Amino acid sequence: MSSLLKDFEVDAKNPSLEARQRWRSSVSIVKNRARRFRMISNLDKLAENEKKRCQIQEKIRVAFYVQKAALQFIDAGARREYKLTDEVKQAGFYVEADELASMVRNHDTKSLTSRGGAEGIAEKVSVSLTEGVRSSELHIREKIYGENRYPEKPARSFLTFVWEALQDVTLIILMICAVVSIGVGVATEGFPKGMYDGTGILLSIILVVMVTAISDYKQSLQFRDLDREKKKIIIQVTRDGSRQEVSIHDLVVGDVVHLSIGDQVPADGIFISGYNLEIDESSLSGESEPSHVNKEKPFLLSGTKVQNGSAKMLVTTVGMRTEWGKLMETLSEGGEDETPLQVKLNGVATIIGKIGLGFAVLTFVVLCIRFVVDKAKAGSITKWSSEDALTLLDYFAIAVTIIVVAVPEGLPLAVTLSLAFAMKQLMSDRALVRHLAACETMGSSTCICTDKTGTLTTNHMVVNKVWICENINARQEENFQLNLSQQVQNILIQAIFQNTGSEVVKDKEGKTQILGSPTERAILEFGLLLGGDVDTQRREHKILKIEPFNSDKKKMSVLTSHSGGKIRAFCKGASEIVLKMCDKVVNSNGESVPLSEEKIANISEVIEGFASEALRTLCLVYTDLDKAPSGDLPDGGYTLVAVVGIKDPVRPGVREAVQICQAAGITVRMVTGDNISTAKAIAKECGILTAGGVAIEGSEFRNLPPHEMRAIAPKIQVMARSLPLDKHTLVDNLRKIGEVVAVTGDGTNDAPALHEADIGLAMGIAGTEVAKENADVIIMDDNFATIVNVAKWGRAVYINIQKFVQFQLTVNVVALIINFVSACITGSAPLTAVQLLWVNMIMDTLGALALATEPPNEGLMKRQPIARTASFITRAMWRNIIGQSIYQLIVLGILNFAGKQILNLNGPDSTAVLNTIIFNSFVFCQVFNEINSREIEKINVFKGMFNSWVFVAVMTATVGFQVIIVEFLGAFASTVPLSWQHWLLCILIGSISMILAVGLKCIPVESNRHHDGYKLLPSGPSNSA
């Protein structure tokens, strides 16, 4: 099978255009192209969108580099005048939306200056830069300046899916056959008897179409919910005088937005204030070099990313008036990238479809030849009647229906159904899958490289211990007793409140709220406990420059000037790094005294002691300067003020989740920026660091030669003091040795590792927009246990599709062979077109619903990961398919050729009764085989069955409707009511397949272990359940 599917292979992540085109061109037998490829990306549409995107980028590039220069030479009088409309005046605004859009888009600094800069624009849009927009004005601002939304592809109605289901070529042919059959039947047999066969086919088609459309429509609603969730971005604004979080879609012109590293600029706007703001504009202009935004270059464009620094901006343009809005419009169509499993099953469907087409043609030819031979024997070869035409039409309908059954259109669509179901369930379990393939790939993951903070720990940080003036002080309940002199306390409070990326604000109820990262919040809370006041500190000191914290430097610095004119720089960061920058220390009198080697050794011991207690350690330092430096802040000459130890407790359930991963053959590796002692302490607490595992620092790892890197990479369980580049290097080396790697990340610098990994997992709470954009899955609660849940669902998707394929291929084989053999031997097919359509619905749409949506069980995480190179249709599956097919063919063959004698059927309706028994037995074989298919290798197929309400509902509906078809719809389905003895016989024939399944599963088919980790059955059923 593998050699036949060589054209149906694509990479799970970033598949090549050549591979995507190759498999599409290889799909030759398709009943309904519109439905088969509905969820697959349209390459022509994608190419067209890419062309549009490039055109928009070129236009923006021109605006950046040509118009800015040209505007310098255009006289203000020659500029376009925007007349203020009455609607804008009456709303209390003094500038038109198009005027604002034009000014920002064209980077027209001259127009901005003439209108008074950001402050002047704020007046024209009637907003205070300190108080922000009033909530009562939101509606009128949206009415005048527009909403911050982009056009979405309109939702498809249910009738659209009905129409799409009707595009099936085989169903169209059958409809034509049915109409002709009704016409000929009425003419020859009269009304209403002549209508039954044709009407039965039409009713069956309507049923198939409705069930298909309902299933597809529900899928579309699930994907729509997921798309809506993907577009949710929360930003911080100042409104009604307080800082608050709002959805990006609720942003209005006049809003004051707070930007920090990793944020996406949510709308076009003007810089108000900020520090070291660098903007990545590559998503708009294609330029890779970051743009520096400040008072002289104040324009910010929607869709760009904050690469460094922080700022406040005034929103001037929203929605479709921005260039990003126009760009988003081109990206709203194109479809989802195909997954490897979808592609592989398209290949399987194509191969089986070709076989089925051959059988259908052979069946039709054999039936026609036998019919002609029989006419020749009867001497009526020259006499043809309308009844003969009706017989040939029935043969044709049977042949077409065999194609309906034989082409397993449901195989690739079952993957979509299963993934949609899994993604919906994961969303309720706090994991948002951004790319379909990620859910599938996660089932094969062999290792997870996880961050510590917020993923393994709670991210609720508090300062637990502090070293200052030679003393260690521990937190006592909600307070600290430091007993410091006033001078030392003042310096400590300055070091805390001056050098911070967070803010202390009042919420609507007047309660104090700290906004910022968990580490920053912990330190600010510590400062408030010491009696510090933010407003007082900000009044007494003016911030001149900020160097924000980033993962490479592992420190944050700020330059301030005191009201007396004194220049002071503060720094805080990773203890080992910042301590090396110090040559002095604050004594108990608040004086700066030399830092001896002995004291450095003592402080290092304190840091090590804090770290061994799983505390994150930071040093707070300062230095006084004669004048403000023109470049970077100094890297030496600082005075050490304090070492703080921050406690971040391990999340409940993490140790158990790690153990589940280890039992499932998934290695958990912790990659953190923390001190190696802190990292090891946390890793041991979580159960990550085990005997024989390696804990290494990032600097040591990155300096190893490539061959040593690859040798040590599989043994690494903890990487401490790592840079984002170290994480990327580790991922790269693990992938080279064949690992399927999942990586977590939250910062902007984690984007390369998230992109490089097989599955990128971004944190939903702590993660930046840049990290989320490069991720495949967003863990919305930042919890490691949720990552394990994603792996479990990934495995469930794969196994569920295997179950469905096993079930469907069995039906395919039996339906094809029984009709073909019967046609060759008896000259008629035991299963009519209507009956085959019902069987097709059982095995296709209903089968997929039942088997492809089963929830995961605990046993899934007790087997090894499924290798990427493993054959999808395993030996165990072939064993079950062949065994069940042989049984069904033998039983149905005996009934077909000797049923009348065995069952003692006599009378004029004996043939009808026998055909009904064959049909009924065939359906019950599939019902019981569907239950068998719940477990490919385990014998206890009933375990957890009633936990899947979808499975139970499908089984109940199938049996219920089968009873209705046989007992009440005989005229349309060519059946007759059966006695209770015959019903019992049909059920017995079907149920024997379950006993057969037990015997089949005792036949070993793998050499040592099955691909999914189960040990071979040693002796029989007694040890298997």
Automatic annotation (TrEMBL):
UniProt key word Cytoplasm: no
Pfam families: CaATP_NAI, Cation_ATPase, Cation_ATPase_C, Cation_ATPase_N, E1-E2_ATPase
Keyword Ion transport on entry: yes
CDD domains: P-type_ATPase_Ca_PMCA-like
Enzyme Commission number(s) from the entry: 7.2.2.10
Superkingdom field: Eukaryota
One Gene Ontology MF term: calmodulin binding
Topology with respect to the bilayer: Multi-pass membrane protein
Subcellular location: Membrane
Domain Cation-transporting P-type ATPase N-terminal, first and last residues per copy: 111-186
GO cellular component term of the entry, any: membrane
Transmembrane segments: 169-188, 194-214, 351-373, 393-422, 809-829, 835-853, 881-899, 911-928, 949-974, 980-1000
PROSITE patterns according to UniProt: ATPASE_E1_E2
Catalysed reactions, semicolon-separated: Ca(2+)(in) + ATP + H2O = Ca(2+)(out) + ADP + phosphate + H(+)
Keywords: ATP-binding, Calcium, Calcium transport, Calmodulin-binding, Ion transport, Magnesium, Membrane, Metal-binding, Nucleotide-binding, Translocase, Transmembrane, Transmembrane helix, Transport
Xref: Gene3D superfamilies: 1.20.5.170, Calcium-transporting ATPase, cytoplasmic domain N, Calcium-transporting ATPase, cytoplasmic transduction domain A, Calcium-transporting ATPase, transmembrane domain, HAD superfamily/HAD-like
Enzyme's top EC category: translocase
Role according to the record: Catalyzes the hydrolysis of ATP coupled with the transport of calcium.
Homology family: Belongs to the cation transport ATPase (P-type) (TC 3.A.3) family. Type IIB subfamily.
UniProt cross-references to NCBIfam families, sorted A to Z: ATPase-IIB_Ca, ATPase_P-type
Name of the protein this chain belongs to: Calcium-transporting ATPase
Organism of origin: Cardamine amara subsp. amara
